[in-house]
Amino acid sequence: MADITQGIPIATQVPPPRSTGVLGWLKANLFDGVSNTLLTLFCVALLALAIPPVIRWGVIDAIWHAPNGQACHGGGACWAFIAQKFRFILFGFFPAAETWRPVSVLAIFLFMIVAACDRRMWGRRLGIVWLIGLCVVFTLMRGGFAGMSKVETAQWSGLPLTLILAVVGMMLGFPLGVLLALGRRSRLPAVRAICVGYIELIRGVPLITLLFMASLMLPLFLPAGVTVDKLIRAQVAFILFAGAYLAEVVRGGLQAIPRGQLEAADALGLSYTQRTRLIVLPQALSMVIPPLVNTFIGIFKDTALVIIISLFDLLTTAEAALSDANWQGFYVEDYAFVAVIYWSFCFFMSRYSQILEHEFNRR
Amino acid sequence: MSESNAGSGPMIELQAVHKWYGDFHVLKDINLQVGKGEKVVVCGPSGSGKSTMIRCINRLEEHQQGRIVVSGIELNADLKNIDAVRREVGMVFQQFNLFPHLTVLQNLTLAPIWVRKLPKKEAEETARYYLERVRIPDQADKYPGQLSGGQQQRVAIARSLCMKPEIMLFDEPTSALDPEMIKEVLDVMVGLAEEGMTMVCVTHEMGFARTVADMMVFMDRGEVIERAPPKDFFANPKSERTRTFLSQILAH
To answer: Of A233, A246, A202, whose CA–CA distance to A308 is shortest?
Structure first.
C-alpha cells in the first residue's frame, strides 16, 4: 500500500533471489525441506532401477525381424510377433483380401473424431457429418455390393468393432442419459419413477449380465423366426448401460444450477425446452466434464467385455493371436501392444477434456 | 378468461390474494392496483412477503387464492396465459441472474430471438441500443463474470428491456451491490421511470422511492399495512408499524 500521508507510491522492487528461475523451481518443487529432498532422491533411485531394464528389453535387445517364433526367443521383446500379427490383432477375422475396408473405417472414425473436437464445428452440420460417416462405416463393413464381398457382423472384429461399440454406445447413450437425468428431476411423479427405476435397475446389474441377457435371453422372448443381429443386441445393451451411468453424472450437473438461473429464464418467457437447451444443459454439462469423460473412458474399456458373448473386439483378437502354434509365448508383447492402443484413445479423451474444461473456465 | 380488456383498466390487479408455504401464511388478502405508467415502491421488513408478492405477478410463485390479472390476462393454471404475461413483464433480481455461459450480447438477444422470434440482426440492434441506454455499450462481448456488480445489474435491466415489456418488476435490485455501485443502477431505474414505464419495485432505497414513486406500499407479516403517496407516507405514516420501520431504516 502506498503511504497515504505522503502520497508517494513505493517503487516496484525485484523479487528476492532464488524464488524464480531454474534454481528457484528446483528448490520449491523438489528440495523443499528434508522430507521432500529424501522423497525426490528415492524417486530418482526407483526410476534409475526401473527404466534401463525396460529400455534394454523393449529396444536394445528387441528382435524386430524373425521368420518364426522359435527364432524370436532371445533376451528382449519379440516385436516381430506384432509385425506378423498386426493385421489380425487390428482387424481380426475380416477377410484379409479386403483389409482396405476396415482401414478406411478407422480413417473415417479418426476424421470424425477430429472434426468433433473443433468447437466451431459443433452444431447441426457436425451431426449430419457423423450420421453420414456412421452410415458409410456400416456399409463399408457390411459390403455385399459393388464388388465388395458381404461380411457378416460375426466377422467384424478387432479395433473397428471396439470403436463401433464404444462410439455408438457413447453417442446414443449420452442423449439417453440426459433425458433420464431430466426425467429424474421431472415434476411428474410417473416420469420420475420410471427414470429412477430404470437407472437403479441398470446400474445395479453388471454389464456382463446385460450382455448375457441381450445375447441369450432376448432370443427366447422373441417370436420364432425373428432374429436380431447379435452385434445390434450387444450395441443396445451398451447404450442402455451407458445411458444409466451418464444420467447420474448429468444429474450432478443439473443439481448444481442455481435456482436463479431457472427463474431468470422463466421470467424472460422461455419455454421448458428452451430453458433446458439454452440455459440449463450448457452450464450443467460443462460443469461435469471430468466425471463425464471418466464415464466415457470406462465405457470405452468395457467394450472388452463383449468377449463373453463371443464378439471379437480388440482385446479378444489380441488373445486369439496368441494361439498360433508357430508363435507361442509372446504374451507381454501382445498385451503391451493393445494396451498402448487402448491407452492412446483414453489419454486422448482425457487431454481433450482438459482442453475443454480450460476453455469453459476462462469466462 | 378475460383477455385483452387492458384499455383503460389497471395494468396489474391483485384481488384478495392469499398464499401459503405449507402451513405458513405468507400472503394475506393482498389487494393492489397498478395503473399504466404508475410506479409502485414496496417496502417492509425482511420476511414480510414483499418478494413473494412481486414474484406472484409473473407467476414465479403461485398464489392459491384470489385473482391476479396482468395486462388484461388472468394468471391461472393456463400455461398460455402464464407465457403471455411473462412476455409482457420484465423482472430484475437481487442476484442479477445473468446467464454466465453467454456473453452480455447473447444474454440480451436470447429471449428476443427464441421467444419473440426476432431475426438475430434485429435483436442485436435492439440489444446494443439498450446497452447504450444503461451506459455500458462497450461490454457487449464480455461474459457476465468479467463485469462489476453494478454493471451486471444494468445488463440484467437491459436484458429485460430487450423484450420490450409493458411492466418492469424489480426485486431488491440494489441489495446485493457494493454501496458505490448502487447509484449507477438507481440512475438507470430513474431514467426508466421518467419515460413512463409501469414499475413495481421492492427496495429499501427510500431516496429513490421519494423521487420516483407514485404510490408507497408497506408490507409486514404478509399483509399490506399501509398504502399512500410518498409525501404522506414519509411525512405522517398512519400505522405504528410503518413508523417503526421508517425510523429504523431512515435512522442513518
So the answer is: A233
